[in-house]
Amino acid sequence: MIGIIMSILAGIFMSLQGVFNTRLGEKIGVWETNVFVQGTGLILTLIILFVAKNGDFKQIKTANKLYLLGGVLGALIIFTVMRGIKSLGPTYSIATILVAQLLAAAIIDAFGLFGSEKIVFSLNKYLGVALMIIGIVVFKWKSC
Questions:
Q1: Using an 8 Å Cβ cutoff, are 33 and 25 in contact?
Q2: In this predicted structure, what is the pLDDT of residue 73?
Q3: Alpha-carbon torsion 128, 133, 134, 139, what sign?
Q4: Neighbours of 125 (CB within 10 A)
Q5: CA angle 30, 105, 100 (to 5 degrees)
Q6: Are the C-beta atoms of 85 and 19 separated by less than 8 Å?
Q7: Which long-range contacts (CB under 8 A, 24 or more apart) does 122-125 make?
């Protein structure tokens, strides 16, 4: 249950952040917003880190070097979400992002990439993805 609750919160936070960042970017600029967002995130994370103290930075040497790209991906995510929302509006952009996330996650699961457990996809999973894509098309469809 905690996974579902956290996933729901993540979706809400991501949608709010995308809109907030886009509106801030209209005032101060896209990359300026990215710096501000990453900077405030760093400050909050450092505060939590000093309070929680439950990890070990020394173990970073043993991590797959590819996994160190999370910060780079974070900056790219902020940039692309802001551009998507500015071009498409929040609902259409976030819906498209969700389907892209689902497809990327399905590929990761289907092939067991990046240390994930390989999951076999059945017809109902493919139909679920297809329905989501159809939903985006229907949502954006302009009526006569």
A1: yes
A2: 94
A3: positive
A4: 15
A5: 45
A6: yes
A7: none
Q: In the block, which residue shows the tokens 């043993």?
A: 62
pLDDT at 55: 84
pLDDT for 143: 55
Pick the residue with more confidence: 28 or 105? Answer: 28
Name every residue whose Cβ is closer than 8 Å to that of residue 74 and which is 6 or more positions away in sequence: 38
Distance, CA of 34 to CA of 40 (rounded, Å): 10
> Of 13-17, 27-31, 95-99, which gets the smallest average pLDDT?
95-99
Question: Could you write out the three-class secondary structure of 88-135?
Answer: HCHHHHHHHHHHHHHHHHHHHHHHCHHHCCCCCCCHHHHHHHHHHHHH
pLDDT value at 54 more than 80:
yes
Question: Based on the number of CB atoms within 10 Å of its own CB, is 38 exposed (0-12), middle (13-18) or buried (19 or more)?
Answer: middle
Give the distance, in angstroms, between the CA of residue 106 and the centroid of all CA atoms in the same chain: 15
Under 8 Å CB-to-CB from 42, ≥6 apart: which residues? none
* pLDDT band (50, 70, 90) for residue 141: confident
Nearest-Å Rg of the Cα atoms of the chain is: 18
* Alpha-carbon gap, residue 24 to 28, rounded angstroms: 6
